[in-house]
Structure prediction request, 894 residues.
Amino acid sequence: MIQLAYLIPLFPLIGFLINGLGWKSMPKQAAGFLASLMMLVSFGLSLAIFFEVKAGAADTIIPLFDFIHSGKLLIPFAFKIDALSSLFLLIITGVGFLIHVYSTSYMHEDEGVVKYFAYLNLFVFSMLLLVMGSNYLIMFIGWEGVGLCSYLLIGFWFKNRDYTNAAKKAFVMNRIGDLGFLVGMMLVLYNFSTLNYNELFAQINTNQTVLSGSTYTWVAICFFIGAMGKSAQLPLYTWLPDAMAGPTPVSALIHAATMVTAGIYMIARSSVIYNQSEFALHFIAIVGLLTAILAATIAIKQYDIKKVLAYSTVSQLGFMFLAIGCGAYTTAVFHVMTHAFFKALLFLGSGSVIHAMGGEQDIRSMGGLGKKMRITQITFLIGCVAIAGIPPFAGFFSKDEILASAFAHSPILYVAALGAALMTAFYMFRLYFLTFSGKFRGTHEQEHHLHESPAAMTFPLIVLAILATVSGFVGLPEVFSEHHSLNEFLHTAVTNFGAHHMEHNTELMLMGLSVGLVSVMIGLAYARTKSPNFVANTGLAKVLENKWYVDEFYDAVVVNPLVQFSGFLDRIIERKGIDGGVNGVGKMVRWAADRMRLLQNGQVGAYLFTMVIGIVLIFVLGLFFVNF
Amino acid sequence: MPIQYYLFLSLALFCIGIMGALMRRNAIIIFMSIELMLNAVNLLLAAFSKMYNDSAAQIFVFFIMVVAAAEVAVGLAIIVMVYRKVHSVDVNILNRLKH
Amino acid sequence: MDILQIIFWILTVMAIGCALGVVLSRNPVNSVIFLILTFFAISGHYLLLNAQFLAIVNIIVYAGAIMVLFLFVIMLMNLNADTEPQKSWLVQLAGVVSGGTLFLVIIAAISKANLLGVINKETTNIGLIKVLGQVLFKQYVLPFEISSVLFLSAMIGAIVIGKKDME
Prediction:
């Protein structure tokens, strides 16, 4: 069965090809149905393979063909199925399928719906390549593929200039990270002359190639720069909030559940390299923590329902990197999984709200929606509870594990991370209360229009809500259970570095502390939103509302000088230098031709003279100067 | 008899032809000068034919005559045409044709 | 000097003299007559070179057909010495100088090429119709056929050009 794993990316590819080539003639209903069906088949296959791996199937390499074979370098186009990739396959195809189903309803009025599903299938295909590849190059192909699809889908409503700008921003920001990844790959290739995971990690583990620690650090940092771009970490995170320009299901699938976690996957996959460099791990921990705090502070003062969720995503990704920085790779993967469920749930819930509000995204004109949309309200609440970290919902376990590993590393990290987690609880419940409780603040027309979404949209919400509730139990902490099923499942593929062991009492105390504080935060959020009055923000709040002015800062420091410089290149080098040279050649030829033209004066006698003189010259040349 | 004799004879005829073409303005005289040049070449070919005892050269003379005859037919037709237009066979006024 | 050499020199002087006459005479009709005489001299040379067939063809085609055509055209246009346009003496000098330069340069080229060869006096049969016909219709049959096409197109072209305007 595992040998059939190549079929998993094949089906989305088929879906993409059919929808992509027939985007003019496909009926809208059929496109959504086809895309969802392809995802369902892939999900079924992933499920089968997952259980096979869980039952103890060994790591498998599925070679398809030699991709690059040049001299000593051999890069096969092959897939690697092990615990890590099978888990990611399950998340991608599972959540992907639910979001496809959701999209069939959410997008059914859009004129470009066939194109939309084609892109969505292409995205899933690329994402599957990314996680299934057996070497870094295949991962990079998928990595670029998801970047492309992200660009296409953010700019899906390309008639809006802001949206296309957001798409471009995402693309360019990702390019910066991709360059880091590429440089890292070249460093690996230079030092180990292979990009295959198995051979590379075997070389490192058996010390076949002895390298200085700094080489590992460089490789690790380069890879992390790639992850920074894709997973929206400081300083490359600003594209993700802007990426909310895309359709909401896209935000749920690409910018919350799957693509942005590619960085986590990449580092977890490369854990062998990262274990060699403590410096890189510290660096990752600090970047992750700073991102988590910064994004959380921004989220507190945002008024766009999707922007809040976007910053929350950035913040949660920061948590994952914090876990990685503490060496707890499996914890990061655990949080990827639970986050995929509850964040997809929250995004789809927000999509349902936006759908009901007729496109309105400002929470200042919402409120009291719970009465009209019961299912959305309940599932959204479950998502909020899960992300805030209330037991027994999924987010509690994964976040608690991250906090515990941070505590084991250093109490300072723990305090800062706890602060970010508390802010998470606050802004999520602020969002929840502003949206679903209280009185409706929108126009009368909007109020009349309010309705619960159709079944195709509520069904994924319910499924994800169930998953967000129960998925935490695969990683019960030591205090509650002897078995940490996720770690046991993953241990063949990736193991934690410097595993920590904590006193049970300490652990219980930390849990109690965080749950208690989170509850306080929820209460605070309720109190602050009970009678909302939206006066213009001043002081720190205004800075937060304007996202710490990071975008403005980047504009001033990076974008504007670049624009100036390219303007200089355009005006001086291009117009004057290159164009001048090229046009000058043309002008010179014209000038010369203008004079040469006069030789052709229509006088037959002159022509005859010229001819004879020419013959004489040829003879003279041949006789005295050239030997022929 | 050395081959040089024939070489110089045909060269002399050829150069007289060239001078004629350069000196005269009458299109028909120029035309005749060209015929003279062609005949100079024919003579040379015949001389080489005898020297190498090969009749292929005479075949070429034959072809040159063919081409010359065709050329004269077309060329004279053109001259008649020009004369009809401008009532002159002076080559110097042929540059009017470009307007 | 045997008789053949004497004939050679007579013919040579006649050819060059008549050629100069073609170029220098002011009346176009005289030019045509001189040219015909030149062709006769060249035909004599052909006979000396054992190219009997060529000699006959030269007289028939050139002196007979082509020159009659020339004469006909000259008569048609009523050209004579009075209507003859004259170039300025400067241009004429330039023509003589360039022709002379070419003459000298080619003589230099010939002397540098150091051609050594003698035309033997024995009569051969390379110029007989029978021999030429064999070569023409065996080795050169394709150019022969192509030249017939050339003739056809020249004929049609001459008719089209010479016709009065069609409107």
